[in-house]
Amino acid sequence: MYGRKVKLRFFFIVAIILSVILSVFLVLKSLEENVVYFKSPSDIKSLGKFGNEKIRIGGMVKQDSIKIKSNQVNFIITDLKSEINVTYSGVVPNLFSEGKGVVAEGYLKDKIFFEATKILAKHDENYMPPEVKAALENK
User: Do the domain assignments include residue 103?
Assistant: First the structure.
C-alpha cells in the first residue's frame, strides 16, 4: 500500500517525536527535586499538613518584630491577614528591614514557626545600588 520510503519516513518522524517527549519528561523529572514553592502566611494557615519539603514564604516584615541575638535573627512575616514567626541564622541582606517585602526560603516547623535557610529582601523598581547612584552623581 505505502512504499518503503513513506514507511521509513513515518518511523523516522515517530522516533523523533518519541525522543522529544522522552527528553522533556526527563528534564522535568530532574527539575522536580529543585522546585521551591512560594506561599503566603495565609496559605500556610490553610495547609492541612506540612512536610520536610523546602518552601518559600513571602510577605512583609511586621513593624517592631525584628529581634537580633548574636548571629540569629527572629522576625514575623505578615500578609496583613496572617502572620508566621521566622528564625534565621546568618547575615541578612542590606535591604532587609521592617515594613519591607521579604522572601524566606527554608523549612516549616509548624503552622506558625518557620526556620529560614536563606533570606531574600525585595526592593521596589526605584531601587538603585549605592555604587551606581554615586557614579551617576559624579558625572
Answer: yes
